[in-house]
Structure formats: structure tokens, C-alpha cells
Hints:
33% of the residues lie in helices and 22% in strands. The chain is α/β, with parallel strands linked by helices and 219 residues long.
Amino acid sequence: MSLxxxxxxxxxxxxxxxxxxxxxxxxxxxKVCVVIxxxxxxxxxxxxxxxxxxxxxxxxxxxxxxxxxxxxxVNKLKEFNIDLVIMAGFLRIITNVLLDAxxxxxxxxxxxxxxxxxxxxxxxxxxxxxxxxxxxxxxxADSGVDTGPxxxxxxxxxxxxxxxxxxxxxxxxxxxxxxPQAIKLYEENRLKIIGRRVIIEPPLSPEESVFLTNPLVxx
Length: 219
Ligand code: GRF
């Protein structure tokens, strides 16, 4: 099914770009119909304009409560008849005003393997902790911070000479692959939420499951 996507951004918008590209190539049937940023002047807005997608600023600083800000977001999403809301580098905590308007119709991407490292600066946290793997997660949004049911995760190794920048870049390149895939599964109506678990129907074939070790297991 082709859905009308509304993408919420706060920054560079490289995930937005991967979704626009996936749509233009036909990997996903859905179309980005509006991009809303809570921060004026960010590059994500330019990316939208280059593809003739309406690019709108709703500055959270113009609102006295989170709920009032979310109400303005909901009004704009409704104006564009949005079916599915995509948070792509959207650095705001959302309230029930938005969640209730789009129940289980809001996706978020997070640059860590949840439930490890919710919140901010998580690539650095994974590096400082000494993790051998890091990664990213697409999940349904709920009222917590990075807590909703998980749709898909991508894993990358942490290398000995990594910095926060190199690790973030490696994770971001996987984000660009898993977000379009999650949207594809959603638009094909293949996601069934059972409690915290998101089941994919029909199931993926066994060869689509992988396991990784870092360092390599030699046996
Ligand atoms: C991504 O790592 C995303 O997961 C995080 O912020 C970054 C935004 O990147 N929440 P972009 O704006 O999509 O380039």
C-alpha cells in the first residue's frame, strides 16, 4: 500500500534522504508528503525542497508547552493527510497529543542497539563502555524515550581505532538501510505487534537471519 509519510526532523536529514531516495527508486511505495522541522534553517529542509516536498518549520520555542507544540504538529500532519509519521533525527520528546492522534503509526530511529543506550550521545556511550558491537534500531514510538516495540535493528562492529565520529558514521550508513526496510514492512502490513514484540508475517526466510561476532570466532 502507498502511504502518505510525514517526516519530522531536527538536523541534517540524511535519514530523510534515504527515505526519499527509496521512494523515488520504488523500493518503498509510500511517498514523503511533508517534512516538518522544529529547528529553522536545518539542511533537512533543503533536502525536502530539492525534491519538491513541502518543508515546514514549527519551532518548539514558539510554544509554552510540549502539548501545544505537538498539537501544531498534528494539525499540520492532518492538513497533509499523513498516514504514517516518521521521526528521523527528530530531537524532541513527544507527548500523548501526537501519540493519540497517530496510534502505532509513528516510527523512530535511534543510533544504538536498544534497550542499551537510550537518549543522547549514545555512540560515544557505546564506545566508552567498551562495546564490541553497536548499531541502530527502528521502533514504534510510545510515551517513553526510545522504548517502543522494536521493528528492526542493524549491527556494526566497534573497531579498536574508532572515534565517536567514525563509529557514528558506520552506524548512520546502516540507519539508511534499515529505515526504508522498516517502512516497507509497515506499508506491506507485515508487522504484527504482540505485547512488546513485533512479529513479521510472513516470516523472513532463514538465510535472512545472521549472526556476527567481533572479534571473529575462529572455530
Ligand atoms: C541519526 O543518527 C539518528 O538516529 C539520530 O540523529 C541522527 C540524525 O541524522 N536520532 P540525520 O538527521 O538523519 O542525518
